[in-house]
Specification:
Elements (H helix, E strand, L loop, with lengths): L8 E7 L2 E8 L3 H11 L1
Antiparallel strand pairs: 1-2
């Protein structure tokens, strides 16, 4: 979730013991539905 409490789809990588964000965007309807089914 973003600081505005919006769901985000995030691509990331782990390098040298740190997590780096590659990109972040709003999820598609399908991605949002999958998240809600699994975690809410």
């Amino acid at each position: 979730m973003s600081s505005r409490r919006r769901l985000l789809f995030v691509a990331h990588t782990a390098r040298r013991g740190r997590i780096r964000i590659i990109s972040a965007r709003r999820p598609t309807s399908r991605e949002r539905n999958q998240y809600e089914e699994l975690f809410l």
